[in-house]
TrEMBL record:
<protein>
    <submittedName>
        <fullName>Uncharacterized protein</fullName>
    </submittedName>
</protein>
Length: 482
């Protein structure tokens, strides 16, 4: 027999609402109107260098008896987390669903770490470390210092709204994780998303791959390889576009450093028949490694450490086409906004000065201009193997002529130069995207999210490619967001 999880305690819900958090959070939750029925529509906001959800510490909940379960670390045999669920809910299936949708941000197989469209669709409400406790000081003034003791640390409570004030936790449940640090909560909602039916509480030190229900030996999550995690995300339709992250970053540019230009200044989406790069050219750029360019000297300083060694990750379906699309859209917006005004009716020297003015920088902030200027001016620059520069050059020339009008003339030498310079810029984009894939998810494949973040967090690349509507909103969502 496999056995069943042991019920440790019970909680009665009679008012259709639970208050939760530390004591002052609960007081706040009992002092404000109940949030509207269903999953609260809270999305993360930047606050300084962190993201927080502004919540009110009350939530609609299913009436009846809720069972409380201790979750035990099988290595230490101590409580590592708590789970409460309505008596009609299968606790094992419910925990499995919550962890699949949004588990610990400190474990790789954690799903979404914030409230977003996917967590809402799955019926999970996310509470993170900065969302409650002393990080939110509302109602702290009602607490006397002597009322706070050591046992309250790494602890939160759940209590029915009807008894949350003034009796505090009488009739509620107090959840404590010994030696816990940074508190996290996840509410699971019923199938109609009308009311919460479960609550998972854990800390930074909770490792679900070695944690089980008290009375069972099966851990809540299995150890999987990075490749297995990635394959699971692909199967489950994980959003690798990066659009959600980009929107959040651009909401508070003073903190993130990422600001979206005025929507009226953005360009596209273009017809896909206008795209200048095929899959084979983008893949050729991906695998390109010029040994001579791994050494870079500016004013006598060896700056080769700025370049990454190793193989660039591959593209993979079903995201490859989206990646090709955003790369082409970024290139076309750059050609229309920057290249046409700087290159029309000009020779190579004049165009190069206008396009890449920082090609003799005093520091490292103009390195992209240094290399683009070199590629633009030097027709004998080492070509990228399997990159059909004649084809790409003809596509660029055709786009420039159509977009600039009959009075604009583009010299063949300039077109060949901008073809080489664009190819070099994209080696930088894909190299940085490759680094993002390793840092963020330890993946060996490059996704559109990696391309978007590579551009977002590099000011030189962002200056060139930020005017693409598809970059900011994708092809299907590239209408004005205002």
């Amino acid at each position: 027999m496999t056995g069943s999880p042991k019920v440790y305690n019970t909680l009665a819900v009679n008012s259709g609402c639970l208050c939760f958090g530390e004591l002052h959070n609960i007081w706040n939750g009992a002092s404000v109107p109940v949030q509207s029925e269903g999953i609260p529509a809270h999305r993360p906001q930047l606050s300084g260098t962190v993201q927080v959800h502004r919540i009110e510490y009350n939530i609609t909940a299913r009436n009846g008896i809720w069972n409380g379960f201790r979750l035990i670390d099988l290595n230490t045999k101590k409580v590592a987390a708590w789970f409460l669920a309505h008596s009609d809910v299968d606790p094992e299936k419910e925990v499995d669903k919550i962890l699949r949708v949004s588990g610990s941000p400190y474990e790789d197989d954690s799903g979404s770490s914030f409230n977003d469209d996917k967590t809402a669709a799955e019926g999970v409400f996310v509470i993170n470390r900065y969302d409650w406790g002393y990080y939110d000081s509302r109602s702290q003034e009602v607490m006397e210092p002597e009322e706070i003791n050591e046992e309250l640390f790494a602890s939160v409570g759940l209590v029915d709204l009807s008894v949350a004030k003034p009796a505090w936790l009488e009739g509620g449940a107090w959840l404590h994780v010994p030696n816990g640090e940074y508190l996290f909560g996840r509410f699971g909602f019923d199938d109609d998303h009308d009311a919460a039916r479960s609550f998972l509480f854990f800390t930074t030190n909770t490792y679900f791959t070695r944690t089980a229900f008290d009375g069972l030996e099966r851990t809540l999550r299995k150890e999987v390889t990075q490749e297995e995690r990635f394959e699971r995300k692909l199967r489950e339709g994980f959003d690798f576009s990066g659009l959600g992250t980009l929107r959040e970053l651009s909401r508070v540019p003073e903190d993130s450093g990422v600001s979206r230009p005025p929507w009226a200044d953005c360009l596209g989406p273009y017809r896909q028949s206008d795209h200048v790069l095929r899959a084979q050219e983008i893949d050729a750029i991906r695998v390109y490694r010029d040994a001579e360019e791994l050494k870079l000297f500016v004013h006598g300083r060896d700056l080769s450490y700025l370049r990454m060694e190793g193989e660039i990750g591959e593209f993979i379906e079903p995201w490859a086409e989206s990646l090709y699309d955003v790369v082409n859209e970024m290139v076309l917006s750059y050609l229309q906004r920057s290249v046409i005004p700087s290159m029309a009716n000009r020779g190579v020297s004049a165009a190069a000065e206008l396009l890449f003015p920082r090609h003799t920088p005093e520091g490292e902030t103009g390195l992209l201009d240094v290399w683009c200027h070199r590629h633009f001016r030097q027709p004998d620059a080492r070509p990228i193997p399997n990159f059909d520069s004649a084809y790409v050059g003809s596509r660029i020339a055709s786009f420039l002529s159509r977009s600039a009008g009959a009075s604009a003339v583009f010299e063949d030498e300039c077109v060949a130069g901008i073809t080489r310079a664009v190819a070099y810029m994209l080696t930088e984009v894909l190299e940085r995207a490759n680094m993002r894939s390793h840092q963020d998810d330890e993946r060996t494949k490059i996704m559109p999210s990696d391309v978007r973040m590579a551009v977002a967090f590099n000011s030189q690349l962002r200056d060139r490619f930020q005017f693409s509507r598809v970059y900011w909103e994708g092809r299907t969502g590239s209408g004005s967001p205002e």
